[in-house]
Specification:
23% of the residues lie in helices and 21% in strands. The chain is α+β, with helices and mostly antiparallel strands.
């Protein structure tokens, strides 16, 4: 019998462009730490979070991002507090329209997606993506990662090493010119 590995991540974010961007960045880091592919999940999170920040925005209320993995299925949920209008893809956008394609992208990228009404006034837009099974061992958050390395700076022969400025005084102390 094989045991299915379940993983969860949840964050409450402000319904602003900054909150939508943070949702994508947090999801990307969480997926990376789980050893799961970033695409198409990062793009789906970006679209759903952006929709929550634009169309589901209620001043003073947050939206929630939830990532849930069971077996080979990643479920992405974005819950906002404006449940009176349910989202639907706009199939009739012109080439010059700057908006209206978010759910069309989600439809193209996700294996399944839908909308669930929650306790009023909330709604949850979700998408599911089949992902490759994670590697046997996920990378540890504090483990060293590969990347570019460079040797410490060595001045050419005959040159002095660069001078380091003295440390700043502790906060709250007054600087004098004496």
């Amino acid at each position: 019998m094989t045991q299915k590995l379940a993983r969860n991540f949840r964050a409450l974010l402000s319904p602003t462009p900054r909150g939508a961007r943070l949702a994508r960045l947090l999801a990307t880091e969480e997926l990376r730490s789980w050893g799961l592919p970033l695409d198409p999940a990062a793009n789906i999170v970006a679209e759903l979070a952006n929709n929550a920040s634009i169309h589901g925005r209620v001043p003073g209320r947050s939206f929630q991002l939830l990532l849930h993995v069971v077996g080979n299925t990643l479920r992405i949920e974005v819950t906002d507090t404006l449940g009176d209008g349910l989202p639907h893809p706009q199939h009739h956008t012109s080439g010059s329209d700057e908006t209206g394609r978010g759910l069309l992208l989600v439809t193209a990228l996700a294996d399944r997606w839908g909308v669930t009404r929650d306790l009023p006034p909330r709604k949850t837009v979700w998408a599911e993506v089949e992902v490759a099974p994670p590697a046997a061992e996920s990378p540890k958050p504090d483990a060293p990662r590969s990347g570019q390395t460079c040797a410490p700076y060595e001045p050419p022969p005959g040159e002095k090493a660069p001078h380091q400025a003295p440390p700043l005084p502790p906060a709250g102390h007054i600087h004098s010119r004496e």
